[in-house]
Amino acid sequence: MKVLGEMQHALSADTIPLFIQFVSSCGKEHGQSANRIREIESAVYEALDNMIRFMHQEGELEVTITGKADERGRLILEISDGGKPFNMLLGGDSFISGSLPEQERPSVRVMKKLIRNVDYIRHEGRNCLTLTVMPDFKTAGTPAQ
Prior knowledge:
Layout: E1 2-10, H1 16-30, H2 34-55, E2 62-69, E3 75-81, H3 94-97, H4 109-114, E4 117-123, E5 126-133
């Protein structure tokens, strides 16, 4: 597996654009189309925004995003943090949202619509959200525009 890059920074509304710029560069290096990169950016924005809104640790939470390319041509973005357990994929579960009204619960529909393969594990005291982007066959072998 080829590592495209890694970024670690405190998470806040002000640093989300830095993370988005990083995943955009990973997408470009991987050869994703401009349209697909925008979708990836939207999915990562949704994940980071949910972390701020529902973990309530803005500015305190160090987040690491690692971009990788695997042997099957997939772009893999791993988003991890050492904060309290937070599986945003279980949006209706009390593990995350307690008694929040449904309209205030984290929505992962955007992520799942844009990035079909989204997984979460809690490993060694860290939340690990993995977005696996299938190869963009329309631009395979050509640089992203």
